[in-house]
Amino acid sequence: MSPEKRPVDPDTASVTGGHRPGEHLGSLKPPVYQTSTFVFETAEEGKRFFELVYALDEAEEGETPGYIYSRLDSPNARVAEARLAAWEGAEEALVFNSGMAAISTMLLTLLRPGHRLLHSSPIYGGTAKLLRTLFAELEVEVVAFGPETTGDDLERLAEEGDTRLILVETPANPTNDLFDIEAAARAAGSVGATLVVDNTFLSPVWQRPLEHGADIVVHSATKYLGGHSDLTAGAVCGSSEALEQIRHNRYRLGTTASPATAWLLGRSLETLRLRVEKQTDNATRIASFLAEHERVSAVRHLSLLSSDDPGFEIYKRQCRGPGAMISLEVVGGEEGAFVFLNSLEVVRLAVSLGGTESLASHPWTMSHSTLPAEAKLGLGVTPGLIRLSVGIESADDLIADLSGALDAIADR
Length: 412
Fold this sequence. Notes:
It is built from 15 helices and twelve strands.
């Protein structure tokens, strides 16, 4: 096998993938193509580009569609997509202008009135609201299942209606509950449904759902993939066949990531492993500290799973590391949570996650605020629950900050 065709590790592809300096005046880094449209050399070339982009004709061997308009595609989008596909072990990836744009475009492509969608629960609040509102209005039957659902139970659920899609978010937001991707794949396969896995929380550094039977992987690329809290983006990864119609609907809906956003994302993917490994090391130390603290009634981090935990076997089988998301329950309910949050100095109070800085939020009144109280409690989202996204700061400084904020609960 020639050196040019030797498969490379994602760590290498994330630095070099999708960019040939010789095609860009020798620029070591991809230039930002800040343009709305692209010029054709000839009318014949323009005709051919449209034929390929809109699938009016099949590409010849080695032929790649040219660029037409940045709503459709851009050189920067292709760089980010090549690097992300390498990370997920996918044939292709598509980048979008937000995580919700990615999941909305995917769902609108795969679902029709009368179809049934099964989704893991809890799930990100924005996704939950989208399913409860828009897709309910579109007469899609939406059915939730919890982490206690067995593989056999899930197969029975899939067989009860016209199930076309199973959506699994694992670990779950914000509780860190784990769901078995292989069991979900079997359930989807039993009825010919598509299995989609939201891999935002662990990133492809610690989990690669396609290796466990998923058909499509989605990300809020705003989070770990972007990693610097300076962009909003989304991504969908999978086989060329699985993504074909999603790509065309991305064109129609105008949900493609802008060149500037795609450039930032491609840049960020170069340091993905370095950031995530540091964040995970910090989170593991912090989780151990919190687990021993008297003002913390519960801590959920995958490093704390024991062999008798229901999610332990799933973790060992499908995860490569525990990630950097922690859920902790502080004493004192909402009041205790607010005292804790208002006392933080190093950790910032904000929603989102996966950035270089540590962030804390209150799911009860923030990300899951639109859910009724009973529904939140049923998901494990309580008034005292804090979601902590651990960054790359000094672990000692973070622990000192968290310790001081917990002490403030008692001093109140």
